[in-house]
Amino acid sequence: MVPEAVCMSENQTGLPVHIGIIMDGNGRWAKKRGLPRKLGHKAGANTFREIARYANKIGIQYMTAYVFSTENWKRPKEEVDSIIELLRAYLNEMDGYAKENIRVRFLGDRTAFDQDIQQKMQRAEEKSASATGLNLSLAINYGGRAELVHAARKLAAAAAAGELSPSDIDEDMMGRYLYTCDLPDVDLIIRPSGEYRLSNFLIWQAAYAEYVFLDQVLWPDFKPATLDQALAEYQRRNRRFGGIG
């Protein structure tokens, strides 16, 4: 549990530069209400819109949301299909982010999706590329281990082509081959729904992240005040990065 919310403002110092959110609990939210799971995902998408806009308002620079993992394909086909259709509809609305000065990008292997979805992703990225507010990343068909394998293969290919020596590979170079190559490491990861694990999310980038787990909140019920609570808890932490504080 986290303490009661404090008032956050655009001028307040001590905010994390990069927040990661595992948007968990959509299905359970629907089940508690006797609704189909797809309606839980729809409610979760509405929450995501609200939280992204609020994060932009209070001055968060980077936010990455775990939308669909590489493991989520294992779910029942009907549920996967409903998530894909929700994604397709959501992408049609993304011009609004550019108008609100929010830059959008997508992390993960997008080749698994239909061509029209890939084109919509590219269009959203291009339309918002000049935005200077929140950098909003959506991790879709994303897995931390798959990302590391993808990076390792690119490094191996470069080494085989004589473009680099294996001895040249260090942490900085590895980072440049990740999907998040132009993003800072994540400072805070928030997970609602009572689960206490990363679930293959940003496992390289979260090496020194702080974690806030919310055991009484399912993602569709996550509000700006809930984010305030997590940020307040983050500000209470003493981040030493292996040193002495």
Give the mean pLDDT: 92
The CATH homology group name: Decaprenyl diphosphate synthase-like
Q: Over all CA atoms, what is the radius of gyration? A: 18 Å
Give the total of domains: 1
The DSSP helix count reads 8
What does this structure look like?
With 245 residues, the chain is α/β, with parallel strands linked by helices. The protein is 40% helix and 15% strand. It has a 6-stranded parallel sheet, sandwiched between helices. Strand 3 (103-107), helix 5 and strand 4 form a beta-alpha-beta unit. Mean pLDDT is 92; it is low at 1-12.
Question: What layout of secondary structure does this protein have?
Answer:
Layout: E1 18-22, H1 26-32, H2 37-58, E2 62-69, H3 77-91, H4 95-99, E3 103-107, H5 115-127, E4 135-142, H6 144-160, H7 171-176, E5 188-192, E6 210-214, H8 224-236
Helix pairs in contact: 1-2, 2-3
Question: In a nutshell, what does this entry contain?
Answer:
This protein has 245 residues and is α/β, with parallel strands linked by helices. It is built from 8 helices and 6 strands. Helix 5 (115-127) links the parallel strand 3 and strand 4 (135-142).
List keywords for this structure.
alpha/beta; disordered N terminus; 6 strands; Undecaprenyl pyrophosphate synthetase
